[in-house]
Write a structure and sequence with these properties.
Structural class: alpha+beta
Largest sheet: 4 strands, mixed
Shape: flat
Radius of gyration: 34 Å
């Protein structure tokens, strides 16, 4: 007979004694269990003791997490978190350097546990640590030369403990003094600093900037971009990642009026070329966190264009009108005519003719074309950049189109405005960066004016595609759709340079796009005749069952999910998988991302499928309602889902990508007997149905299928032709 579900069999260790095997009743209060264990070893004052997991985490067992104890677990009887916190609080103030170092090492390790962290914080432990950072370390400055390794380790453990304690979100970041910020900044500003100390210092500065507006202002006064640049020129990728994260945080929190000023400083310090040579083109493989930080930097850089994108042109502003005059002058090689050259009407007529050749919608006053936002003045900026930096190509496009028939000309002005708007949509100019996306494009780090260069390539592509399509003015929107498809397909190949991007576009001519579309259309062809539709309806349940089994098999393999917190690089991983009998979800925390499947036995938690009440997605998830920053982020919202079970408890997920999101939401809905409605299911159903239909119809190739079934022939007059086998 199996043991009751509330009884777990464990081994409990106590230093200097043989381990005990005992059964723990999960219904009994934890204090009673600890008292029973203490009595077994004749230990008094059981309230001073606690149980810990005897694994690498050494986390305390509490009433909240005691359900994580599994049969066969090894536990450790140890001092209570209150007592341990008091002891460490005293030990880190020891006058002995060796004792202090050992105490700080223990504190750094223990601070990962929120139970201990709460007790240490209650003793005003964070204030003690900040005081030690501000002034305590100065006592050891004289000893630093002769005890440099010891000093570096001590400071490293001190800052590690601080970071771990703050990561629990118990204490507000707004409580720290300027002296503490100056001290942390000084560790970053020093040219030779212990790697661990530098890493922790950068992490603290990033968290300060992201979590407090007041601290942002104080940190911005202490840290300059010039002081951060040298850390990018080293070989340690973690230090480089933390450095870019601090730059991103300063960029993100800077007031709008200061962002352009900061961007100019970054350009002066050649940040882009330093990142290109030391990070993107280094011989090391790039980790996902570095890719994410480069993506964030890319987004924030492009977001600087938002102001121009949302600025309407003032038709009465002479300085802005002069830009349009400059476009006309470059295109037609016309110098400004003196005021007395011809009548006003004649000059107006000449301007109108030239503006028409330039492809503006409003020939009389082209400034009106730039009152549409987006793209506003950004389109005019791009046109001027193209005209000045690629003058030959600009003149060729304008003159080439002005010599065509009116209906066949590709209007440069209108095309530039619509193309700029499209590029802003593709690059999501003005949107906040995603919390998880690692999708950066190396080619945008090649050039200081990457958006303008991107535009120059794309406007020439548009003109080329227009000619290939032999388009007329009525085909304008069709041409723009083809151009967008060409750009997106080229970007998806992740070209390393703008030249590579250009060559990818050369291979994506209009003819090639038609071939790709035709191929995709054939793969997704949907026959509309009634017999085919009937066959489709007959096959569909089989295909849906196949998709369902695939989803459940994927759930059985499991997926590694990331726990997102305010300090993303310190996030933990957790794994979830379905049992082979489809009755239980096993899940638990991991120290790092696994290289393969994780065994059921190593996952501490389990959730019976029978207890699941519902699956909710997006903004209905509790973890999306709690996190304000995530709530605003569309990409994270699209990857979030939660399982509701028992009495309004939730298991919250953020899928690593859209594919895993579809797999898990489909699989969970299948377990609950609900319909699978994800985009992936629709795509898989269309693909598999199309393939199955084509396989079944192979024998009918080139045979016309009638709309109605053929008539049943009349019965024969006799059956003499029938052979009786009996």
């Amino acid at each position: 007979m199996p043991p009751p579900a509330d009884i777990v069999k464990v081994a409990i260790e106590w230093p200097g004694a043989f381990p005990k095997l005992m059964e723990i009743d999960q219904k009994k209060p934890l204090s009673s269990v600890i008292k029973e264990v203490c009595e077994g070893w004749s230990l008094g004052n059981h309230e001073n003791f606690a149980l810990q997991h005897a694994d690498v985490t050494n986390f305390y067992i509490t009433e909240k997490n005691r359900n994580e104890i599994k049969n066969g677990a090894i536990l450790l009887l140890t001092s209570s978190p209150t007592q341990t916190a008091q002891q460490l609080h005293e030990r880190i103030q020891s006058s002995s350097m060796d004792a202090k170092l050992e105490a700080l090492k223990d504190l750094a390790s223990s601070s990962r546990d929120i139970t201990f962290a709460q007790e240490f914080i209650n003793l005003d432990g964070i204030s003690l640590l900040t005081q030690m950072v501000e002034s305590g370390t100065e006592r050891y400055q004289k000893l630093q030369k002769i005890m440099k390794p010891c000093f570096g380790d001590m400071l490293s453990f001190m800052l590690t403990a601080f970071v771990e304690l703050m990561d629990h979100g118990i204490v507000s970041w707004d409580t720290f003094s300027v002296a503490f910020i100056k001290k942390i900044a000084s560790y970053v500003n020093k040219s030779a600093m212990d790697v661990a100390v530098l890493q922790r210092s950068l992490a603290i500065l990033e968290s300060m900037v992201l979590n407090s507006h007041d601290l942002y202002q104080k940190v911005a006064q202490e840290i300059t971009i010039g002081q951060l640049i040298p850390h990018l020129q080293g070989v340690d990728q973690d230090i480089q990642t933390y450095t870019i994260a601090v730059i991103n945080a300063l960029f993100l929190k800077a007031p709008a009026e200061k962002r352009q000023e900061m961007a100019n400083i970054l350009a002066q310090k050649q940040l882009r070329s330093i990142i290109l040579s030391n990070v993107i083109r280094s011989n090391r493989s790039m980790n996902s966190e570095m890719a994410h930080q480069l993506y964030v930097l890319q987004v924030l850089t492009f977001n600087l264009l938002e102001d121009r994108m949302m600025t309407m042109m003032d038709p009465q502003d002479q300085a802005q009108r002069d830009i349009i005059f400059e476009l006309r002058r470059i295109a037609f090689d016309v110098e400004c005519e003196p005021n007395n050259s011809g009548s006003i009407e004649k000059r107006k007529s000449m301007y109108t003719r030239d503006y028409k050749k330039l492809g503006f919608i409003n020939h009389v006053n082209p400034a009106v074309d730039f009152t549409q936002i987006p793209p506003g003045m950004l389109a005019l900026d791009n046109m001027l950049y193209f005209a000045k930096h690629q003058q030959d190509a600009y003149i060729r496009i304008v003159l080439e189109n002005s010599s065509r028939e009116d209906k066949h000309e590709c209007p440069f002005g209108r095309s530039s405005i619509e193309l700029t708007k499209m590029l802003c949509e593709i690059l999501k100019v003005g949107e906040l960066p995603s919390e998880t996306c690692p999708d950066f494009h190396p080619m945008f780090f090649i050039h200081d004016r990457s958006f303008e260069e991107f535009f120059c390539i794309c406007i020439q592509l548009l003109n080329k595609t227009w000619k290939e399509m032999r388009a007329t003015s009525e085909d304008f929107n069709k041409v723009m759709q083809v151009v967008k498809e060409q750009i997106m397909r080229a970007l998806n190949t992740k070209p390393n340079s703008l030249d590579q991007f250009k060559s990818k576009l050369q291979n994506l001519s209009y003819t090639e796009i038609l071939k790709i579309r035709q191929s995709e259309r054939m793969n997704q062809e949907d026959f509309q005749s009634r017999p085919i539709l009937e066959l489709r309806e007959k096959i569909q349940p089989e295909i849906m069952e196949l998709i369902k089994q695939q989803r459940l098999n994927r759930l059985c393999e499991g997926t590694c999910f990331r726990k997102i917190s305010s300090r993303r690089r310190q996030d933990k991983f957790w794994y979830c998988r379905l049992s082979p009998n489809h009755k239980v979800l096993h899940y638990g925390d991991l120290e790092e991302s696994p290289q393969g499947e994780v065994a059921h036995d190593s996952l501490q938690e389990k959730l019976p499928v029978a207890d699941i009440k519902a699956v909710v997605t997006g903004k209905d998830c509790p973890h999306m309602k709690e996190k304000g920053a995530l709530k605003q982020n569309k990409e994270v919202l699209e990857l979030a889902f939660s399982i509701l079970y028992e009495s309004d408890e939730y298991l919250n997920f953020i899928a690593p990508d859209k594919n895993e999101y579809c797999v898990w939401t489909d699989g969970l809905n299948a377990l609950l007997g609900k319909e699978m409605t994800s985009d992936r299911t629709k795509s898989d159903l269309d693909t598999l149905l199309s393939m199955e239909m084509k396989l079944r119809l192979l024998d009918l190739e080139n045979i016309q299928i009638p709309e109605a079934p053929p008539p049943i022939p009349k019965e024969p007059s006799n059956y003499d032709f029938v052979y009786d086998c009996n």
